[in-house]
Please model this.
Amino acid sequence: MANLIRIQRVPQCLSCIRRFTGFDLSESTNPFYQQVRGKKKTAKEPSTVKVRLLRNIPTYGRKGAIIPVAPGRMRNVWYPQKYAEYMTETHIREMDMRGTVFERDYTFGVKKVEEKSSNPKIEMNRLTPERAIELMSANIPAQLIFYRTPILTQEPEKPPAEPSETSASPAAADLAAASGPLPKPQPTVVYGSVSAADVAAAAKAALAKSEEGARVVLRAEDIVFFIREEDAELSSEPDRIKTLGEFGVEIRVRGGDAIRRTISVRAQEDKGDFL
Model:
């Protein structure tokens, strides 16, 4: 009886347990088991395929040339439109061209651009001073108008005159006041100013209407103002006008004479419609 009963020992190695039980215990009994998958090995598409051109294609090659091209371009564009045909290794071997390096011709069908000199010569046909004066006299108007906003100032109130004991009557006092000298009007100061650069810009704009006049060179240094004495007291800058009124200006040309024009500085509210 003892011989009939055989106590089988439990296998100790994992492979024996798998064979004994018929299933894999690694996933069911090991809580830390993690399945690891290998990288999928898929066939990569070649980066280029060899084709033979059936027509001239700029930057690729002439008809009959064998060149490498991207598979997508050949599959989607060239082959359906019959621009090229595939060249297999069998075709290349039959043409006895094994080992030949096929390259794309990037210069085919491209027009050559002439190289320009890094320091091109600039031909400047300058006007003579005499011709510049003629153009300035013909194109710059006699009066250049500028608009500025005046600064409004309140005149101080004069105290009432005390009646004089020796005055014969109020009528005589009014007559004496009227016969006295009138107060000198003060110039109206404006916000901003009219500078020599402003006059030069206005003169250039007038000259630009003529193709030849646009070639006249004017700078702020070529503008000279004739400022009145009462206006000179308000500004120490001789190249700016800071009051309303009319002023003389001289526009000079380097190496030549000058022309005289009038600068009219008017109040902004007198401008009316925008010109």
